[in-house]
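Known limitations

Structure tokens in this collection are predictions and should be treated as such. Users comparing against experimental data should check residue numbering before alignment. To illustrate the layout, the record for Membrane protein YndG is reproduced below. The input appears on top and the generated tokens appear beneath it.
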Amino acid sequence: MGLYVEAHIRADMDELWSRTQDPAQHRRWDLRFSEIDYLPRTEGEPQRFRYAVRVPALLTVSGTGVAAGERERPDGTRTSALRFVSPHPLCPLARGSGYWRYVPDAHGVRFLTGYDYRPRWGVLGALADRLVFRPLMGWATAWSFDRLRLWLERDIGPERARVNWLAELAVRALLFTGCLTGLGPGSAMSLFGRFGADVAYLYPLLLVVVMSLALFKAPLTCTPAARRCLRTPADRTGRAPRVLHTLEKHG
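Generated tokens:
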């Protein structure tokens, strides 16, 4: 089953194209890549590239790929497609392919992607992919798309957006942990002074409310969130573009 993610971005098409097609800008917002570098190419050939993903303090996996795009189409949309392969034995993604579509509307651009890949490590790898890696890749893609949206719509740079996300995550974790272990009824009631005894019976309800907010409250508007993106195609624009098939002989 392939992955699909769509974000609606209120931005200029050319600006969106630049921040997704320029490797220096792409790697700033896309959580899935640490490095993206174009390789030299001859006229008329698709663009080849090299990419790397670093897991801090653990390892770096790398691979290569080939990409092509259609910047001017009769219907006003744009597309780009790629195929990639990683020979690294510890990379869970052996090879794959995908596409981006840019669909303008009255309020901005629908920016969507569909991609699929072949997992490594045989049957065990397929099981790990189904349970762990594929959901993680879907989340990382959606989170990255929303970080790109914040950059274009609100001028919140990718680095700042990551700090916002980590800070909000830390606050939620502290609240949840405090409710579970750190804040006993006695210390909590002392916050209410002489009214503590009167509101003691509300303490369990208060814990439930705070824990629910920590877990389920919508993220702040300045924080990237995967939940803001669509995960299934709403119409036929979710189909793979023809340019993807032209890359088969180069992949």
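For this record: Helices lie at 13-21, 23-29, 122-154, 158-182, 185-190, 196-199, 203-216, 242-246. The mean pLDDT is 86. Please report discrepancies through the issue tracker.
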